[in-house]
Design brief:
single chain, mainly alpha, two-stranded antiparallel ribbon, DUF247_pln
Length: 483
């Protein structure tokens, strides 16, 4: 009993409050002074983020620049000092070439926009004064613009330290596509307008066209940038006021054609629904079931090798976006069946592909105004490619050019999806159609029959001969019984 009392005494220790509670009042006042009324002013428009550690830990080098720092997050790094000198050289060349603008004009103009530029970053940037931020934006912005101008120009400068090395432009493109390495687009646009050629007869492309043209040199972006340039030149999509930064423009070049593709597909489906058909009700019920199936595809969707065993063909197709993936259903016929076909645009997996997709996905994960189209694409490809055999099938059909090892290529998409959140899966109905095709056992039986007995002419002849012999035996037996 005595021991229990001592134990209870040790468990409950009272701590006296010094000075009659004055210390707590001081703490309350200190905490109250630190509290912000409402949300921080920089949080409303922010679209340039530091990549969250939960994503960055998987491959830190994919999110950090190697050669050049653009914007405040990596500004001042010792490894970027050489490129700071190049930026100053580029700006000096620009000002000496453009007589219609002075350094003072640039400083005064960007200083008026400095406060708005701060709001684009998901951090308050308190360590950068107004002068520091204005200087950084002018140097970085003019460097990017001059870099793209030089790349698209026919004139060569033998003294240019970047274009003397064949690989340097590609390395810089890698750094310009990182989420943490961005400038607000409106700053770039304003600097571009100020530094346009004063000659009225000389053609100058828009900054959007200039940027997209520069990125057509990069293998994973070549086709998408070319395709999106068509939309821009035909005035089918205006990016002047909607673009946030360079990475956002590149994302738009991939996502916008996909969104147009979805609209066109829905229009075709609506036209078909309006056609009077006695079996239309049955199709609508099937599509309703498809949507329910799609919700469960996370754990059930079959990979490429399993789909191939169910008679699904894979075909590389040309499209305006790598995301325009379609599935053509299989159809039974009188003398056979038409296989289901997965139509997937070509994708090249190389050194730039990984950081590009990682930063696009990180941008979608951080920026709440964007939907998750790129994340959906990575998630679908992750479901299709779960082993080296799946990758071999897609490489054999020229859907994927894999410049990595077979094992790294097989794990590529699964690593992209690590610790990501998917608000909406944009291939839900497509996956439901594929899953429904896969669940029909007839397709698997027919594919097995075709693979085992019709893979070559001799197997087919042997099967036909055996069938004829069996038929003759049956006929002879029946004839003998009747006789």
């Amino acid at each position: 009993m005595e021991n229990r009392t001592q134990s209870n005494t040790r468990d409950h220790i009272s701590v006296p409050i010094a000075d009659g509670g004055i210390g707590l009042e001081e703490l309350e006042n200190t905490m109250r002074a630190k509290l912000c009324p409402g949300s921080p002013s920089w949080a409303a428009k922010c679209c340039i983020f530091r990549v969250p550690e939960v994503l960055k830990k998987h491959k830190r080098e994919a999110y950090e620049p190697d050669f050049v720092s653009i914007g405040p997050f990596h500004h001042g790094g010792k490894q970027f000092q050489h490129m700071e000198n190049v930026k100053q050289w580029y700006l000096n060349n620009l000002l000496s070439r453009r007589t219609n603008v002075s350094l003072k004009n640039l400083i005064e103009s960007i200083a008026q926009r400095e406060k708005s530029a701060r709001e684009f970053y998901a951090e308050p940037l308190d360590d950068l004064s107004q002068n520091d931020l204005v200087e950084m934006m002018i140097l970085d912005g003019c460097f990017v613009i001059e870099l793209f101008r030089k790349y698209t120009s026919d004139e060569e400068d033998v003294n240019d330290p970047i274009f003397r090395m064949d690989c340097m432009f590609q390395y810089l493109c890698h750094d310009l596509l990182l989420l943490e390495n961005q400038l607000p687009w409106f700053v770039l646009q304003h600097l571009y307008n100020l530094t346009l050629d004063p000659e009225p007869d000389k053609y100058s492309p828009s900054l959007t066209i200039l940027t997209l043209t520069a990125f057509t040199s990069q293998k994973p972006l070549n086709h998408n940038c070319h395709s999106y340039l068509w939309y821009v030149r035909e005035n089918k999509h205006d990016t002047t006021y909607n673009t946030l930064h360079i990475l956002d423009l590149v994302r738009t070049s991939i996502v916008f054609p996909f969104q147009e593709h979805i609209k066109e597909k829905k229009m075709r489906e609506n036209e078909e629904e309006n056609e009077p058909c006695f079996w239309r009700l049955k199709i609508r019920r099937t599509e309703s079931n498809n949507k329910k199936l799609g919700a469960d595809m996370d754990s059930e969707f079959p990979p490429a090798i399993a789909l191939g065993q169910a008679g699904v063909k894979f075909r590389s197709v040309s499209s305006r976006s790598i995301m325009n993936i379609e599935f053509e259903k299989g159809v039974f016929r009188y003398f056979g069946y038409k296989r289901g076909t997965f139509k997937i645009p070509h994708l090249s997996i190389g050194e730039l592909t990984d950081p590009l997709f990682r930063n696009l996905i990180a941008f979608e994960q951080c920026y709440h105004h964007h939907s998750h189209e790129i994340t959906s694409y990575a998630f679908l490809m992750y479901k299709l490619v779960t082993s080296s055999k799946d990758m071999e099938i897609l490489c054999e059909k020229r859907i994927i050019d894999n410049w990595l090892s077979a094992e790294d290529g097989a794990n590529y998409f699964s690593k992209l999806c690590n610790d990501t959140v998917l608000k909406k899966f944009y291939y839900d109905e497509l996956c439901a159609q594929v899953k429904m095709h896969y669940d029909i056992k007839w397709y698997r039986w027919l594919e097995k029959l075709n693979r085992d007995y019709f893979a070559n002419p001799w197997s087919a002849i042997s099967l036909i001969a055996a069938a004829i012999l069996l038929a003759l035996t049956v006929v002879q037996t029946v004839y003998t019984i009747h006789k």
